[in-house]
Design goal:
By secondary structure, the chain is of the alpha/beta class. It is about 25% helix and about 30% strand. The chain contains six helices and twelve strands. Helix 1 runs parallel beside helix 4. It is globular and about 55 Å long.
Length: about 230
């Protein structure tokens, strides 16, 4: 499988930055994902990310760490951080940047460890893929928490992406939840296979957490229907 993200991040790190990643979904046209964004400093991070990093405590797991900007910030604060990503190139970049404990594996492959904070940012619910898998992922995340641990995760309500009817309702797909998207990414002529990515509205997410006996608390809101949640046992 082509590691498009990893290739792009390695190019940027090694000074071979000539173009950005292009992403496209089944409900939107092509959009640019600038490579420098993956290497942003704390001062350049959006409100939700800053809020999440401020809430981090104890031993931290950074899921989908990318180029490691969150892990590096927390590490410099003296926190013990484990970073994971399914992109081998991303893991290599994290190592080059100085992330001390970074591993090439998926969230579901990580077992038999406990964390005080589990961090999932840049639409962290995307990793759930589809609504039907939310329960499975929440159970797994719960198994990785210490008794007083927390999951910090962000998402968005995508209602605004759909056409509105005359009476204020929205035209949504009949065959799937409206936050279930299919993504492809492109870089230097290479195109990824389509992959599933989930955005979930607050009410549905809270219900899913309650079904797993998890507490759900909105900690911050962004400007584009995005929100940060703290989930605890």
């Amino acid at each position: 499988m082509i590691d498009i993200l990893g290739t792009a991040l390695l190019d940027y790190y090694h000074g071979n930055y000539t173009e950005d990643i292009i992403n496209e979904t089944n409900i939107s046209e092509e959009d640019v994902l600038p490579l420098p964004y993956f290497f942003r400093k704390h001062s350049e991070m959006p409100v939700l990310e800053k809020a999440a990093l401020k809430l981090c405590k104890g031993k931290v797991l950074d899921v989908g760490c990318g180029a490691g900007c969150h892990s590096l910030y927390l590490q410099k604060k003296g926190m013990q951080v484990t970073a994971i990503d399914t992109s081998k190139g991303a893991v290599d970049v994290c190592k080059l940047q100085g992330v001390e404990d970074v591993r090439h594996l998926s969230l579901l492959e990580l077992r038999d460890e406990k964390f005080d904070t589990i961090l999932l940012l840049m639409n962290g619910t995307g990793i759930f893929q589809k609504l039907e898998y939310v329960s499975m992922y929440l159970q797994h995340l719960k198994s990785l928490l210490t008794p007083s641990g927390q999951i910090l995760i962000d998402s968005s309500d995508l209602q605004y992406m759909y056409d509105q009817g005359e009476e204020g309702g929205i035209w949504i797909p009949a065959d799937r939840y409206y936050g279930e998207l299919e993504y492809t990414i492109k870089y230097k002529g290479e195109v990824s296979k389509a992959f599933d990515w989930l955005y979930i509205d607050e009410n549905l997410f809270e219900s899913a957490c309650l079904n797993e006996s998890l507490r759900f608390e909105i900690k911050s809101r962004g400007e584009n229907y995005d929100y940060l949640v703290r989930i605890q046992s």
